[in-house]
Amino acid sequence: MRSIGLRQARLLGGGLVAISLVLAGCSADGDGSGGSSGGGDTIRVGIEEIPSQWLPGTDNGYAWVRVPYETLVARTADDPNEFVPQLAADWEIAADSLTFNLRDGVTFHDGTPFDAEAAKFNLEYVIEEQGPFSSGFDAVEEISAPDKHTLVLELSRPSQAVMSALTGRGGVMVSPTAIEDGIIKDHPVGTGPWAYDEDLSIAGSEIGFSRYDDHWDVDADVVDQVVLVAIDDSDARINALTTGEIDLGDVSVPQADQARSAGLTVDVYPGIHYGLLFLDRGPGGAVADVDARRAICQGLDVEGLAAAAGGEFLTATNQRFLEGEYGHNPDLPPIAFDPEQAEGTLDGRVPGLTMLAFEQSQQFAEALSGMLGEVGVDLEVQTVTAAEYFASWYDGAYSLGLGDNTELTPEEWYLRWFAANAPGNPAGVESETLDAAADAALAEPDPELAEPLWAEVMRIILEEEVLTCSEVLVNQAIGYDSDKIGGVRTVTWEPSSVEFTALERKD
After folding, report:
1. Which are the contacts of 123, defined by CB distance < 8 A and separation ≥ 6?
2. What is the per-residue pLDDT across 192-222, written as a single tens digit (0 to 9) for each?
3. d(CA 429, CA 424)
4. Where are the alpha helices (DSSP H) in 299-385?
5. pTM for the whole thing?
6. Average pLDDT score over residue span 125-154
7. Which residues have C-beta within 8 Å of that of residue 221, sequence separation ≥ 6?
8. Is 218 exposed, middle or buried (0-12, 13-18, 19+ CB in 10 A)?
9. Strands 485-486 and 353-357
10. What does the CA dihedral 449, 454, 459, 462 come to, rounded to 10 degrees?
11. Strand 265-278 vs strand 400-403: parallel, antiparallel, or unpaired?
């Protein structure tokens, strides 16, 4: 096993304390077995809508899956580059493998044992399905379970992305029995501290969870019940918070003061990295011309939009990775706003463009549409429900998209959106220049030596080929009554996310 420095250790693994990060929106066991209904503290959480299905590795809406599901490793709430044990008690990192020592005595909510074979089943399912989060496991060559509590991932190359992917939606552990029986589509079955409770649920509008008495962390001090309530409008969620129908819920950042005036505590925190993605860029595509893509970016005054928003709503960041973060290229200036040049270049070069949006992205998408209209480009924004959005926004039917960009390493970012086989690259095209630069970065085992190679990948994506632009950090807001609810801790590395295991009722 090769030795690694402190920075590499923080990027690749380590930690001593188990945590359970959960968030607004999901369900678990199909029949409620393992749950503990009735009595005790209950937290009611307002979310936009109930996710429609719960297969592992599915883009079903940010991190809502974390109520019933857990992962092998987790991230600390305040540092996305520090990993801590969850279902894996510890692990070893080598240049060509990751070996996990799994916890003993863990069961899924339906009684199925969680062991190395179950973990292998889940990861192979995600990889073989080639869903939106499979790309993080690109370096995984083989998965084996030499014994009940040992899981080995053989790697084709050293990879930062694999450990990162294991903490996300592609790394959730789901009961193999529930997948094979088919009940997982409607009622997820995980290992988390809460299990689906049919008695607390109303089909289509509320999903309730009760504490799972056989959870492996016997010392976990969590509320007895979590009920997720579908409320599809921010105004309605604010009203539900003030009337006590819900205890906690996302609110629109521009409505934060309105919510505060109603007596609520509102925490505003960094949330989603949005970047305009040119999806239909294959031969003959609406945005196949690099000069047209650059001109579209010149027609977008994102810095002006951020300034008008007063900094509370969004911040123009120019690129996915901020200054000081691994993957940032300090030599890349933003594409300058130049509407006159944009209009001259775009004259007749692109047809009408389309983009999907949902509640959280609608305002930004419509602002982009308005700006492009000023330079002669028609961008139609189609607003749909969150479930419809996540199921189809980059399925190849739309010209442009707003990447949620939850990837925390440049390797993940490239593999999800820009590689020829990336889930977020429906056109399936990649230039020889980008392919060669990415191959060089992927082949370098030392993260410090790889960093300038990734900076070159960023330059090609953002400056030379203009595959994305107008990157912004969009703040989010969560409202609650601080006299009733305590322990509200948001996390900055996953949208709409709070640490539910820390929540407590005060009344």
Report:
1. 137, 140, 143, 153, 171
2. 999 999 899 998 899 899 999 999 998 889 9
3. 11
4. 302-308, 339-346, 359-374
5. 0.80
6. 92
7. none
8. exposed
9. unpaired
10. -160
11. antiparallel
Query: Do the strands 225-230 and 22-23 form a parallel or antiparallel pair, or are they unpaired?
Result: unpaired
- Location of structure tokens 């925490």: 267
How many percent of the chain have pLDDT more than 90?
Answer: 57
Nearest to 21 by CA among 276, 192, 217, 213: 192
Those residues whose C-beta lies under 8 Å from the C-beta of residue 46, and which sit 6 or more positions away, are 24, 229, 231, 237, 240, 241, 245, 246, 248, 249, 250
Other Cβ atoms within 10 Å of 94 Cβ, number? 13
Q: From CA 242, how far away is CA 108, in angstroms rounded? A: 36
Q: Is the pLDDT of residue 36 over 60?
A: no
What is the torsional sign of CA 276, 281, 287, 288? positive
Distance between CA atoms of 339 and 374, rounded to whole angstroms? Answer: 8
| The length of the chain, given as a count of residues | 507
CB atoms within 10 A of CB 64: 28
What is d(CA 439, CA 34) in angstroms, rounded to the nearest whole number? 47
Residue 232: DSSP 8-state: -
Q: Locate all alpha helices (DSSP H) within 83-170, ordered by sequence.
A: 116-129, 161-166
